[in-house]
Amino acid sequence: MMYPNDSNWSSSIEAPLVILNEEEITWSDTADVVVVGLGAAGISAAIEAKDGGCDVIGIDRYVGGGDTALSGGVFYSGGGTRIQQEAGFDDSPENMFEYLKQETQGIVSDDTLMRFCNNSVKDLNFLEDNGVEFRATLSPIKTSYPAKPYYFYYSGNESVLSYSQTATPAPRGHRAFGKGLSGSALYRPLHQSAIKKGVRMQLQSRVARFVINENKVIIGLELKTIQKPHRSKHARYYQWMNQAKMFLPFMSAKYRKQVLEMEKECTDTIYVKANKGVVLSCGGFVMNRSMLKHYAPKYKKAMGLGTTGADGSGLRLGQTVGGSSAHLSNVSAWRFINPPIAWSQGIVVNKQGQRFVNEQCYGAVIGRAMCEDNDGKGYVILNKKMLKQAYMQSLPTKVWLFQMFPAYLCMLFASKKGATLSALAKKMGVPADQLEATVQQYNEAILNGTEDAMGKSKEFTQLIDNGPYYALNVSIDSQFFPLPAITLGGLEVNEETGAVKDERGVDIPKLFAAGRTAVGIPSNMYVSGLSIADCVFSGRRAGNVLAHHINQK
Fold first, then answer.
1. Would strands 17-18 and 56-59 be described as parallel, antiparallel, or unpaired?
2. Closest Cα to residue 285, out of 240, 329, 349?
3. What is the pTM of this model?
4. Residue 105 carries which DSSP code?
5. Which one, of 267, 328, 270, lies nearest residue 294 by Cα?
6. Which residue in 329, 361, 339 sits closest to 348, CA to CA?
7. Model confidence over 360-370: pLDDT tens digits?
8. Most distant CA pair in the chain: distance in Å?
9. Is 149 exposed, middle or buried (CB count within 10 Å of its CB: 0-12, 13-18, 19+)?
10. Cα–Cα distance for residue pair 314/262, rounded to 1 Å
């Protein structure tokens, strides 16, 4: 357990304000349910609670959307969705369960995972009922993110041999329909629906601490809200910070500094009362470098994929009232090497010149193997023919700009070339005999028609013969090919209700958590769309419980 006086607290969240009488506070507003953080989890909780008859206030540090609005907008859904059926695929909750059980590895109970799969169609319908659109245009190739005309794809490891032996492969990546990346297309309709239904929004407001009574029961929250004359500038800097993050990181850092300065100097203190309960849905902590270094030091050099709000505030808020946490060292580091597909048809080796992963796998599998077991080092080995293929496969007409630029930069500026494998190994600083043996073993399996040593499917193999040879540096510290990451652990919750548990495993009254603030379905291993799917599942769970099963004054 950790508290604000701990040297590793690394957060602006303060210890709770204890009051003896609720009348001691001048409350700015009061609601049955207060939701803190309005990404996919928070907005789902708010809508579900409002649909159930609750008066709801949604609080967001910025303008709503969080990491969801900036994401690819992929929703992992199966069990026989309308989109799956239109695309001609049969799927069942049981089949979905058998696949996800391999990814989750017991991070949640089988009952919870089965409930997630059984509810999958309903959760997709919930999104559609609240204005989100989906299309059944299936991507013709396996990719990390489908090209512009396609909105449905295999977003995980479903077709990888070791997974497909247990569960029949089925595409479950539902990308929200809209212009550009789909995050805003998924989030915007939900936000508009919440407002239309009567959810009251308290935006550009940072929660500083809980307000509790002498029995440690949550009464409400203390907020630092941006003063009216500064709100437009605060929102503008936040927008610019997010737009510049991928391609102009130095500009993004500049705007982030200005945003944080305004949050210190240009705020008023207000108090919001919660009669039934509070839902914490503030995201993870990947943008808090001190916390990342403390809990997951192997990933400290990764590029945080998230907004400034992903700083662990939800985790710390829960801990101040006794909330227990788990799996904080679990991080999803996405080392995507497809597109271009030619990269994944090559091999990835470590500093010893040895293969350590099936290159066909989803990027999080490759990233975890690289960071957890190989000191964050990885090199894609190709020959000249494959490199030329990779250049053609990375053209802007075939991939997104966020996929094209890193791939080209890596091939141009983060690669080594050798006329022979021995010469390449010398430039890489790896044992030449081991690299030669690794490539030979890979080639022989292809020539002999035998199973690949790592279980890679034949369509993802290609002979690495005839030099010159190339090694692309895809390590965690690659300057030209950043490794994006998100955190997966969080507050421990009652899996039936979403209530935050204390260290004894007892539910904390009136406190719930959802999304990446909580331990959930993707807290072991991430595949595209699974986090947003869990956000909707866990957010709706908390909102439903507060609306229908809590009888507190």
1. unpaired
2. 329
3. 0.96
4. T
5. 328
6. 361
7. 999 999 999 99
8. 80
9. exposed
10. 21
Residue type, 204: Q
Interatomic CA distance for residues 450 and 458, integer angstroms: 10
What does the pLDDT look like over 214-272, one tens digit per residue?
999 999 999 999 999 999 999 999 999 999 988 888 999 999 999 999 999 999 999 99
| Tokens standing for residue 167 | 């569960």
Tell whether omega for the bond before 339 is within 30 degrees of 0, i.e. cis. yes
Q: Which residues are within 8 A (CB) of 131 and not within 5 positions of it... i.e. 6 or more apart?
A: 189, 190, 192, 193
Nearest C-alpha neighbor of 435 from the set 369, 366, 347: 347
Spell out the residues 6+ positions from residue 491 whose beta carbon is closer than 8 angstroms to its own: 280, 314, 315, 318, 319, 323, 324, 325, 500, 501, 513, 517, 518, 519
**Half-sphere exposure of 225 toward its Cβ, with a 13 Å CA cutoff?**
17
State residue 216 phi and psi, 5-degree precision. Answer: 70, 20
Per the rule left: phi > 0, alpha: psi between -120 and 50, beta: everything else, 329 is alpha
Q: Which three-class secondary structure state does DSSP give residue 550?
A: coil
Q: Alpha-carbon distance 75 to 146, whole Å?
A: 13
Could you list the beta-strand ranges (E) of 419-515: 469-473, 484-487, 490-491, 499-501, 507-513
Q: Which two tokens stand for residue 369?
A: 């193997």
Per the DSSP assignment, residues forming a β-bridge with 269 are: 224
Do β-strands 218-226 and 205-212 pair in parallel, antiparallel, or remain unpaired? antiparallel
Strand order in the sheet with 74-76: 74-76, 173-175, 152-153
The rounded radius of gyration (Å) of the Cα atoms in the chain is 24
